[in-house]
Amino acid sequence: MESRRNPRAVVDPKVRQVGFFTSSQPDSSSTQQQTEPISASASASSPPVSTISPSGNSLSPVMIPPPRLNSSDTFPLRNAAAGATSAVSPSSFSYSNRRDFPDGSTTASPGRHSRGSFVKSSAPVASSLPGIGMDSMAAAKSSSVPASGLTTVSVVTMPPGLAENASGMEVQSDQKKNSKSLKEKTTKAERRAIQEAQRAAKAAAKADGGKVPPGTSASLASTSVKVAKPAKPSTQKNEVAVSAGVTEKKGGPSEKDRKKDAPHPRMQYDDESRVVKAKRRAVVKQTEAKNRVELFRHLPQYEHGTQLPDLEAKFFQLDPMHPAVYKVGLQYLSGDISGGNARCIAMLQAFQDVIKDYSTPPEKNLNRDMTSKISSYVSFLIECRPLSISMGNAIRFVKNRIAKLPITLSESEAKAALQSDIERFINDKIIGADMVIVKHAVTKIRDGDVLLTYGSPTAVEMILLHAHELKKKFRVLVVDSRPKLEGQLLLRRLIKRGISCTYTHINAISYIMHEVTKVFLGASSVLSNGTVYSRVGTACVAMVASAFRVPVLLCCEAYKFHERVQLDSICSNELGDPNAISKVHGREDINYLDGLTNNANLQFLNLMYDATPSDYISMIITDYGMVPPTSVPVIVREYQKEHLLV
Amino acid sequence: MDFQVVILAGGFSSNLVPLVSKEVPKALLPVANRPVLSYVLDLLESNNLKDLIVVVEGEDAALKVGGWISSACVDRLHVEVAAVAENVGTAGALRAIAHHLTANDILIVSGDIVSDIPPGAVAATHRRHDAAVTVMLCAQPVSGPSESGGSGGKDKTKKPACEDIVGLDSWKQFLLYIAKGTEIKKDTRVNKSILCAAGKMELRSDLMDSHIYAFKRSVLQEVLDQKPAFRSLKQDVLPYLVRTQLRSDVSSDQNNVEENGNGKNNMQNNEVVLSQVLSNASLPSFHQVYESGLDSRKTHKCCVYIADESKYFVRLNSIQAFMDVNRDVIGDANHLSGYSFSAHHNIVHPSAELGSKTTVGPHCMLGEGSQVGDKCSVKRSVIGRHCRIGSNVKIVNSVVMDHATIGDGCSIQGSVICSNAQLQERVTLRDCQVEAGYIVCAGGEHKGETFARK
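Above: the input entities. Below: the structure tokens describing the complete assembly.
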């Protein structure tokens, strides 16, 4: 279950802290732990944590960014500072950088000097009469739209966020002068004061419409004064609180929030209080289905009709969501993309788009900010549809790569590195693995074979097509099941290539199994006790096959392996749309259950996955060769690390 | 989200004469004392779309609209107004501003819409299917005054039969056929290949094209370039795209093109395998099935989004619609108006003066500074700002715009009195329209007439 916990663990301070302290111990899952301390401070831990762990001492990267409008020149500077001080630890870097700052403005390089003076001049202006300062900055950006033909009749003034930033910078510099020992422990009252002040500032910023995109056009002096005003008292309060010699901390999640954000390793959906809390955070509006099967109460099940329209309606309101991620989420939700590999690839490609369009916000660390961004996207995707294990592994890989980025890399280099990493993951671990699997599996197909497959597994399809290209003479039995009928799609593609096929439904499996010589199956995941977690019905096929002494060959890429051990398919599963099994689309004449869907005595169970015990699997074909199911833990142990590192 | 929004605000619509005039272009017609354009802008703003292009026909109208927008929306929205020549049609208007369109997808909204349907839904559907065009359809509104008199003039002010005939596939996702109800006389042609590919087509006449479209920019621009004769989006561009969805001339999608044709032979090509995996994973639309059946055919998708029936939607494109909108916005759909209603379900501005024994019924609106004399009765009507209304006046189901003067003893039913118009004493109007600044002589009794200076 590691994969599911991972995205949430980022906001769970307790788990993180443990991860950090034990990171020195050699452990099989050390890779993951290494990511965690970094992501911990990225999500802005609260004071108590910070006083203990060194990583928490860094000025958290959010809250009051300085008024740098041209972010292009900031990175070299930051990197230079990092180069000087990076010997200490990555987390202390932003800190020392800032301590350098006042000196830099008086002595050092011209680049720094100009920046320092800019801050000094703009900050007082911003606090006394914010409108003017903003005006001059905005004027430079005003001609963003080609003027021909269009007349700009209405513009948005500079967002108050920036005005606040200007005064915020003053706060920071004040704080630098005043606070001598920054590691000084804070009293509870002081922490509370800061938190109050920051919350007020946040609220004020939000009330002014902080969402307005910056830099649209020239602003009117009078209006921007009006806009910036509410931010002022709060920043002053901030100043008072901060200059009291207190370690500056980001407001971020308060104690209460933190508790709320620390979920159970996996949500148990029969725990009502937790469900309510989770719902509050959710982006997708979800209505719990009413009649649920008692045994599967702990799994999420929603009314399927309501989610999509609601999410669609919010299309333009989900501001921080990247369009690519949003599109993938919609496709998950509507079922346009299904299947482990395809979902994983779609997600990774969306992440590539995200990385391409990413730019580090000022005063933030790329590694941390991007990790938290990815985490928020992942939780959105989970709301659309629970993650598959393969996706969990892929996400772990991406986060690991982000965390491992050398701090000296420039932003563009880092982005390029990440994109090529993801590209490589797709090519090597998914497509490449499939190629290897095809090569191995084809050797097992002989002339005259009758091969049975169930559903529409990607790898098996490639094997069949390749074997056909090698002019092997074989016949394919495609077994299918309602409601998805994926087998029909596979059938269509196989027939197009001229492979002779038989199509049947799973009800007839015991009759058809007589003539089968080999069974090829796909899997969603293989767990470390050899249990195969796959499309529902796979277990049935495998058991019938082994009863008939037909070898069952399972094709699964190694990136889908997982160290979890699972004995049944009850504790972890996914519930599909109950309407899918109660209705047949387009056949109004056979909808005998019409009107019964809300009957309290009737519960629909549309399970998505089942678990096949390893006893029924003769062989697993993976990119590390053909192995018995008992070897899965070895692969997981020996190669998992390599997976994540690639 | 990489969408650009274009509002087609029109110019001086001939349907709406005499309500529109040189002073009041269509976009600025008051609906509950706010220009109709403000409803569109509010809708978009509430959906966080703040970067808008408003296209207006005619320089004068553009100046007027621009002036209003800059006074009303400054500081909230970033609006650019483009003036295009008159009578170029919607497609022509887009052609004129085509070089300003840069985003991948364009959301085109008609400027005369009063609605609460979130435009994001169209955009999301568009994105999800990667469509060339997505059309929002909504239920046909009930037109005409429902529970009141004034049916006499209905023949004249009746809507120009804008019922659309739409054909949908069985999942109600794709648009297979669209035509205007008025254009179909006896028979019509339905594309056979589309019908074969889709298997089943549902023809519906209870849905209406809502004039909210999401276009893929490349497709839109290509069509506009290739077909210079196309004038209207709805009548030319959209039917063209729907007709040609299985033999697309436009380069809508690069992925779809290569995936099935040549690539399958060389398994080494990762890209091909990748796109294959992705396309195999999803349930193929009939487009893909058709495409895979015939090589070297390109297709594009025309999707629909069908708005929920509970949502309100009216286009202000006729005088009847104008009356309907005014009635609904202060009546049934009052959440759109943005006003807070009093306990009597009406809005009477505090500065309005009411004479003794004057009653203002529910679903009424009385603008700022208006004066109403004694013993008047106002029912289900909108009265603008600074109107002067004499004694013993009866106003039912009517719209009186700003600065109108109504003499003693008038009776107005189902009529529109434009701004600065003057009604002398004892005029009886029923289903009439009075042009701006027109003076109706005393004592006349009129029914279903239009008063305009020749």
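Note for the figure: The first helix of chain B runs from residue 36 to 46.
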